Amino acid sequence: MHVQGKVAIITGAASGFGKALAKRLVNKGAKVLLADIDVNGGEKLAAELNGSGSKSKKVAHFVRCDVTSIQDLSSLFPEALKHFHRFDIMINNSGIMEKTHLFADDHRYWHKVLAVDLVAVIEGTRLAIDAFKVEKRAGRLEQGGAIVNTASIVGLYPFPQAPVYTAAKFGVVGFTRCFKRELHEKSTSYLAESGRGHNDGTHSAYEAVHEMGIRVNAVGPTWADTGLITDIREMATGMMPLVSVDLVVDAFMLLIEDDSLSGDVATIRPEKGSRD
């Protein structure tokens, strides 16, 4: 997918990866709907991206969005149509870190970690797929649409100091990989051999999207220099060098632009990246 002239919806857009990705996309000729619970940060970024240009050249619009609210998430797609008349890319990027050790969490903050880091990613993907299908059938979407979820290296290698965050990111990785063609083919073959077919409703995630050309991928960076690691910065930097935000954005762009990728997780380590 060439991003020139395309429109991306980005959650968690006011800072970190979301902010850097929004800037990269606009620099490459795309427009962005910025979604975040941080109103000041989101509005400031939208103003920066729009510069002093006329309204007809608007390239960014901010919408306050609490990703744990299905109403807020659902509103992003009509907002994109209202301001930019299309949407092509969905970035499920909002994320938080657990603040208190699980067994000392009397306020059950860990529920919110799962709600933001996992449930909102699944819901955002589901809503985006439904919205892409509507746009495709209406002839407003030339290509099928690209979805990129923000996972983490701890979705592959557990981080025992943050077990709930780890569980959420493992969930994002597993969920995203269900959209991989090779996994679909293996599971379909197994079902056929076992005498089970589609009559019992066993359609795969890949089947739900591939005919429309919709792709679902994820980035899985190691610790990066963003606000997410503020409370664990010393520990994180002691484990390994921080990865640059620019390198993570490179991985986002690869997953958006390479139409051959679906169900892939791009892992990003210091000074290099790879696809798992």
TrEMBL record:
Species of origin? Mortierella alpina
- Spell out the GO cellular component terms annotated for this protein, sorted alphabetically and separated by semicolons: cytoplasm
Recorded hits in Pfam families, A to Z, give:
adh_short
InterPro entries membership: NAD(P)-bd_dom_sf (IPR036291), SDR_fam (IPR002347)
- What Gene3D superfamilies does the entry give? NAD(P)-binding Rossmann-like Domain
Q: Which family does it belong to?
A: Belongs to the short-chain dehydrogenases/reductases (SDR) family.
Highest taxon in the source lineage: Eukaryota
Repressor as a keyword? no
Going by the UniProt record, its keywords in alphabetical order are: Oxidoreductase
GO molecular function term, any single one: oxidoreductase activity, acting on the CH-OH group of donors, NAD or NADP as acceptor
Instruction: Identify this protein by name.
Output: Uncharacterized protein
